[in-house]
Amino acid sequence: QVLTDVTRDEFVTFMHILASLQSLQTVSGRQQLVDLVVEQAELSKPFQADDSTCVDRLMDCVRQAMPLFSRNVQSTKFVAYVCVAVLPCLTAVTSSVEERDVKLEVLKLLAEMSPYCGDVDSTCLANLYTCLLEYMPVPPAEVENEENGSLQPGEPQLQFSYVECLMFAFHQIARKGTDFLTAEENADRLKDFRTRLQYFARGLQVYIKQLRLSLQGKTGEELKTTENKIKVVALRTTSNINVLIKDLFHNPPSYKSVVGLSWKPTTVSTLSLVFTEPKTLETVPTKRMAVRPKHNERSLYHPPGGKYSERVG
């Protein structure tokens, strides 16, 4: 009853106090807190994308609930609400703070919640997939510059940060509904998706190559500059997408790979990220990489050849 009429700061303070209580440290206690946040978020009401107060309230509530989510305390209600109510009007989402990419913030929260999501209905997954496709263009008639193999001017700009969030969330949620891509009646959907994945992977490889070339040779201290930190995060982002694409490009799509979101803390060193091929970062043992340095060097500097590569990694 205390939370029925509170300010934003008061809500955050109350949640911190409640979360610290010993009686609420159990699974049932954390579930009670999540239910409390769900009520505060007003998920039963329509989402108003042009109302910054509504947007901020939803994001604040998700942030308060995030530490409570686990395998036993699921994020399903929040994920379903974002997919069904928010994603269809994502481009209209507004913020009370200028120069704030609120759309990306929403997608980051969705990605962070998705590993704790239970079963959702087909509408939720379909909306997520549709939103992902908006940032994964179909290949144009000509995708390669004949002289240097780079993307031609005028081609769609690839929004890697958005794609990382959406593809990660799709990778997490679609594993519970694999028929969405593999059912016989969805054959055309899978064919189109694989075409987009393959095209996106080509642009991804070009960008990864450029990032590595700009970071190689830098010392640990040089990598700490603002400009290089941005490049390192971009390299983490593109490496994550590369891993996810390789999974989803399998026939049938696979959902086995594990990646750490680029904006979250990582145990992988910056130098290791710069000098390690993305596809081996998560899967190939260090000893094997040390034995075969020449193979890694070749793969670092040569994006997939041909108009479309037979492989996306």
UniProtKB/TrEMBL annotation:
InterPro entries: API5. GO terms for biological process: apoptotic process. Keywords: Apoptosis. The keyword Mitochondrion does not apply. Coiled coil: none annotated. Pfam families: API5 (PF05918). It comes from the Eukaryota. Residues 292-313 are annotated as: Disordered. PANTHER family: APOPTOSIS INHIBITOR 5 (PTHR12758:SF19), APOPTOSIS INHIBITOR 5-RELATED (PTHR12758). This is Apoptosis inhibitor 5. It comes from Branchiostoma floridae.
